[in-house]
Amino acid sequence: MKKRTWVTVLIVMMVLSASCFVFWRQGRIEHAKMADLCQGSICRSLESFKEYSVNGDDHLYTYGVAEFRSFMSAYLYLNDNSSDPEYLDCNVIYGDMALNPQKVQANMQEIVEALAILADDYTDPTGYIRLNELANLFRHAEE
Known about the structure:
The chain is mostly helical. Helix content is 89%, strand content 0%.
């Protein structure tokens, strides 16, 4: 009887171990996909804003804003902290992109420069410093 209990416990432990490994692996895959989404969104936003700077088509601006929002969502998922200063700065910039496009369009070159840094590596602190400067510029422009 004791041997049978150990076999049952061993089987249960093996099933639990396999389940934990599968869930861990799935989490890693999901994290990698979100990192790719984050990087891809910032690159597409950058390209859209560059084309907008050249052509001036409003649909390019709108597409760039949408991709910037997609970047923000992926960034929030990866960092899981809505009070993260980088996310808050992005949120200020996004709000102005959506609600005050004239203000953002007047500073499009600075937006493109900041996004160019993040397009190389979305974790680069220099890019977030530039976004912080832009967020402060937009905040103080309202006063």
